[in-house]
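Retry 2 of 3 after timeout on previous attempt. Resubmitting structure tokens to design endpoint.
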């Protein structure tokens, strides 16, 4: 048995098998509806059977070891099903007013609104407040709860008195978060649900009252005190709003002040992981702690003091950064490593990786669908698998050049298993990732250490000023490098479209080819070629299908008209021209849909309209109504298949049907919500179908069928 254990690596990685069983249970629980009682009895049966198995004679255990493995897999599969049942409610209850809400986070401000996160008895809620004046932050924290509440009740601008722990009574019933997005776009509902956020509401000054304040506990206050101190120090000693914002993101993952265009530049050049707190940052802090603790090796009980200090600092930093999936993964992994070293044991990296994944999923199984969780584990597994083989491909005697090559090898290795996920989720590939990571990763490490020094010496003004200037200069250099690289024409390959099955094919291809390279097995090479051929065939079929398409897309874009006509792999834009002056709108709202339908090429050819507002497709006609003046004087002789209403016109549905025969009405985001509600009632009275883009998401209409 011992020989078999040594020969088969699979037996040395028990947590991989446990983690796979747990993931299988989570997926099964998400897809199918199971009886909670049946799942609980299954868990109980598996647990009791395992206990009975342990009392068997050794010979029997060896003969039936497969049964023990089966019971363990059954147990963790059932645990996964039960976890997803607990964390993901099948039906979100509709909340009614009045509603008690406890504020969980400090308020963040934009020019027109303020935003925070609250907690109700049924889940978390995003609170948006309309602002009337700029808040006075100077005296808010000095007010007592009683004085603050009195003053808040006298003022129409109460939001300046809202702090974590504040209790509000909402006079307005909140809405459940709906998936009002565009095809291929970001699914905010799924993202919010993974954080147990199910509701949102937009509040006027009279829609809520402050009724008191509740303490959130000493642990929250301790973390918030540290965070406030760090943010205050960085903003005091680092000049420039954007420079300080990058410093905040780099040190503690605080991104609320980060410029969106700068964030897009980091993403386009493949270095966004630098400002997304991850294992890279925790590894740097871990290395710094080991270096600082070297002089204390001879201290008595150092063997016990060292792991305690390391664990305390690592978990404080994890909580300080918000415990995102990537940092949580790293914290759990380092915890296993530290405890293993303390006991004089080392575990294979894959086993530690799987163990940390299992712990994270036991804490929150919804993180399985988190992009950061998937990319984080894929990157670490990729580095562990491919960095050393890539490094060995080139031997360099010079120590400095060898270090540079090793860094490049790690960067290349990290891309191998993250590539399919990057293409699937983001539909782009940063062509300059090797160059930008080669410079930005070491530079970000220096900046991180400089920020730690700045925060440490902040009580000494002269030293803090010097440290702040040096840190600011380094961040400015890094920002300039990233922005200049993002402006290079070939920096990014955009509009890459692959589906889930193609992503699986890519992973199978990578694993099979890697196994062939490592083990020299011809069968693995043939499997890899087959998977790549399958991937290529599906891509060709998708392109052929797109070449014959003709679709009308009415986009979800708040308070704006955005319409595309897809013809083959090209698009005509028919919406508000100001949208094209905002690259963030184009990238976030329009491009994901164009990528999904492979219609990324702009078509400059003018659209031939049969009438001023009538769009004629291969098989269907659509009337675009921009104002009441666009209504024809005489009724159209032929019926149209849909009428798209934009521009918030003052009109009744009965006026439209008198001149345009249709059975489908579409209301885009440029219309006021109260009008849309009125139009929906009128449409129902006329027995017409209707689609509200602000409430139901983008409207996709096939004109070719």
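Retry 2 succeeded. Sequence:
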């Amino acid at each position: 048995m011992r020989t078999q254990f040594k020969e088969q690596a699979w037996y040395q990685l028990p947590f991989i098998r446990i983690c796979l069983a747990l993931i299988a249970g989570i997926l099964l629980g998400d897809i199918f509806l199971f009886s909670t009682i049946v799942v609980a009895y299954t868990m109980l049966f598996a647990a009791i059977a395992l206990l009975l198995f342990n009392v068997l004679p050794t010979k029997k255990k060896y003969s039936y070891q497969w049964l023990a493995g089966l019971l363990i897999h059954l147990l963790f599969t059932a645990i996964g099903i039960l976890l997803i049942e607990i964390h993901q409610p099948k039906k979100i209850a509709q909340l009614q007013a009045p509603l008690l809400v406890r504020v969980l986070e400090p308020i963040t401000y934009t020019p027109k609104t303020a935003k925070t996160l609250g907690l109700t008895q049924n889940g978390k809620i995003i609170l948006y407040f309309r602002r009337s004046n700029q808040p006075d932050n100077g005296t808010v924290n000095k007010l007592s709860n009683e004085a603050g509440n009195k003053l808040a009740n006298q003022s129409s601008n109460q939001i300046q008195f809202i702090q974590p722990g504040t209790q509000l009574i909402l006079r307005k019933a909140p809405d459940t978060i709906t998936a009002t997005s565009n095809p291929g776009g970001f699914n905010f509902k799924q993202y919010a649900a993974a954080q147990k956020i199910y509701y949102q509401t937009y509040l006027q000054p009279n829609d809520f009252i402050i009724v008191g304040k509740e303490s959130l506990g000493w642990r929250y206050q301790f973390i918030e005190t540290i965070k406030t101190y760090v943010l205050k120090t960085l903003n005091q000693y680092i000049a420039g709003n954007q420079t300080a914002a990058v410093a905040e993101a780099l040190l503690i993952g605080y991104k609320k002040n980060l410029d969106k265009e700068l964030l897009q530049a980091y993403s386009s050049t493949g270095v966004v992981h630098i400002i997304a707190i991850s294992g890279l940052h925790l590894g740097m802090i871990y290395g710094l702690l080991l270096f600082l603790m070297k002089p204390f090796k001879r201290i008595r009980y150092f063997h016990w003091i060292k792991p305690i200090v390391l664990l305390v600092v690592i978990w404080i930093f994890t909580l300080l950064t918000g415990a995102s999936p990537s940092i949580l993964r790293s914290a759990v992994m380092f915890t296993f490593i530290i405890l293993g070293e303390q006991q004089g044991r080392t575990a294979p990296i894959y086993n530690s990786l799987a163990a940390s994944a299992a712990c994270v999923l036991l804490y929150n199984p919804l993180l399985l669908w988190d992009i950061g969780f998937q990319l984080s584990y894929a990157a670490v597994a990729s580095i562990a698998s491919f960095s050393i083989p890539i490094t060995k491909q080139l031997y360099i005697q010079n120590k400095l050049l060898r270090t540079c090559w090793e860094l490049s090898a790690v960067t290349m290795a990290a891309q191998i298993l993250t590539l399919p996920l990057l293409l699937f989720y983001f539909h782009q590939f940063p062509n300059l990732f090797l160059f930008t990571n080669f410079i930005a990763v070491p530079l970000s490490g220096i900046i991180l250490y400089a920020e730690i020094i700045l925060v440490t010496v902040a009580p000494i003004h002269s030293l803090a000023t010097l440290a702040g200037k040096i840190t600011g200069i380094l961040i400015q250099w890094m920002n300039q490098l990233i922005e200049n690289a993002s402006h290079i024409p070939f920096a990014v390959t955009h509009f890459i479209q692959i589906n889930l099955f193609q992503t699986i094919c890519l992973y199978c291809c990578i694993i099979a080819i890697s196994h062939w390279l490592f083990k020299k097995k011809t069968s693995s090479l043939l499997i890899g070629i087959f998977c790549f051929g399958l991937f290529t065939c599906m891509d060709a079929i998708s392109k052929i299908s797109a070449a014959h398409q003709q679709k009308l897309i009415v986009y979800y874009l708040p308070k704006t008209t955005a319409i595309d006509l897809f013809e083959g792999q090209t698009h005509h834009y028919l919406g508000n021209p100001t949208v094209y002056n905002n690259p963030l709108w184009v990238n976030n709202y329009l491009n994901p849909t164009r990528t999904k339908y492979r219609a990324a090429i702009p078509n400059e050819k003018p659209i031939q309209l049969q009438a001023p507002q009538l769009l004629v497709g291969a098989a269907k006609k659509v009337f675009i109504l921009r104002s009441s003046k666009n209504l024809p004087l005489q009724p159209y002789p032929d019926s149209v298949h849909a009428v798209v209403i934009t521009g918030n016109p003052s009109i009744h549905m009965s006026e439209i049907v008198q001149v345009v025969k249709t059975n489908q009405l579409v209301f885009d985001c440029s219309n006021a919500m109260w009008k849309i509600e009125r139009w929906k009632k009128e449409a129902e009275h006329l027995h017409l179908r209707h689609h509200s883009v602000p409430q139901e998401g983008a409207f996709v209409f096939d004109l070719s069928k």
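Attempt log closed. Residues 1-7, 133-156 have pLDDT under 50 and may be disordered.
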